[in-house]
Design brief:
alpha/beta; 8 helices; globular; 258 residues
Length: 258
């Protein structure tokens, strides 16, 4: 059912252009595909995963959508400016920005190096700041722009061995409220979609198994699917959600009820 909901065809985003960071696989790929299924042209960003992001674009194009990819480090302002410029040159405009780029690391706080702390916060928070600031002029020009930040349940619930991830995702929820206020005069909505436990592919086949405390299931008794997160992102980017802004919307099977 999740795939049917997340990939349903439609035209509510026809004529729109979306930029999705961290779109090579998992939730980012599902978001890019869902926005394309809604009629948007999608620029898909990745940092290093060229083969995977090429597959994301191919999946969109095989389904009849329009897409391209751009390799860029979202923590590099010059690289982001180039990516935004390429998006506008290729598709003519930007209506939607999805800040999904993130890294998943686990380290006990006492053993955490400052470099690792800065890496995680840099990608999640600095990346969202840099990409949002670069896109704002285009989103304002579009007349009904939308920014969707992809948060994390740990930012609201906490988690062991993930102080950097918890902090960055909590900060993203705060940034969402701040930008919603600052950008409302430009008719740009800003929201945060917060996934709970979702079926995703880890970085490599040799990645260690999830620790026991991360294997528990929410009340609905299953892990979510990336498409179920993507369907909420698509809603927030469309015409039916223009009165929703500054919100953190949880997609977690009841794992957290704020």
């Amino acid at each position: 059912m999740a795939s049917v909901i997340g990939m349903r065809s439609g035209d509510e985003l026809a004529g729109k252009v979306a930029l999705v960071t961290g779109g090579a696989r998992n939730i980012g790929r599902a978001i890019a595909r869902s926005l394309a299924a809604g009629g948007a042209s999608v620029m898909v960003n990745a940092h290093t995963s060229r083969e995977a992001v090429e597959e994301t674009v191919a999946l969109i194009e095989r389904a009849g959508g329009k897409s391209a990819f751009h390799i860029a480090d979202v923590t590099d302002p010059e690289a982001v400016a180039k990516m935004v410029g390429e998006t506008v040159r290729g598709f003519g405009r930007i209506d939607i920005l999805v800040n999904n780029a993130a890294v998943r690391k686990e380290t006990a706080f006492a053993e955490m190096k400052l470099e690792e702390w800065r890496e995680v916060l840099g990608i999640v928070l600095d990346g969202a700041f840099i990409c949002s600031q670069a896109c704002v002029p285009h989103l304002a020009r579009a007349g009904a722009g939308a920014i969707v930040n992809i948060g994390g349940q740990t930012g609201h619930k906490g988690a062991e061995r993930r102080a950097h991830v918890v902090t960055s995702k909590a900060g993203l929820a705060g940034m969402t409220k701040a930008l919603a206020l600052d950008l409302a005069p430009h008719n740009i909505t800003v929201n945060c979609v917060v996934p709970g436990t979702v079926n995703t592919t880890r970085g490599s086949a040799s990645a260690p198994e999830l620790p026991e405390y991360r294997r528990s299931l929410p009340p609905l008794g299953r892990r979510g699917e990336p498409e179920e997160v993507a369907s909420i992102v698509r809603l927030l980017c469309g015409p039916d959600a223009r009165y929703i802004t500054g919100q953190s919307i949880h997609v977690n099977g009841g794992g957290l009820m704020p």
